[in-house]
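note to self — DONT lose this again. spent like an hour looking for the file last time. sequence + predicted structure for the chain T wanted, 139 res
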Amino acid sequence: MQTDGPAQWTAAVGSALTAADAAPDTVTAEKTETGGWSVDWEGQCRRIPVWFTLYGHHAAPTAEVRINDWIFSPVRLDQVEELLVKALTGDAVLRRGIAGLTPWRLEITVGEEIITNDDREGSGKPDSAWEIKLLQNPR
């Protein structure tokens, strides 16, 4: 499946922001230097600051999603709305990773699939307000 551009992705992101009661709840896509597109958002969800960026290319059926330094790739168009809603509303699990391999692991269930990530930019203990809230989840 190829997409014609970022319009479908932008619509899915807008729907996710509305469903998560995030502010602001609108986004626009920008062209990248490599011929692709990006959608950036920074705001508040449930009084917690959070940001994310989607990177994609017109010929690719998937995008890369970065949420507060956590990198999810590849993410399909049919997954992105639920992934963002769950991430923004705290319906995700952040836990210690496997000793000696990765210190932290972020898991988000999308449909029947658990999307996991242990690829976090930066190092050390998660310290953003969003990450701290995820660590407090009683899962």
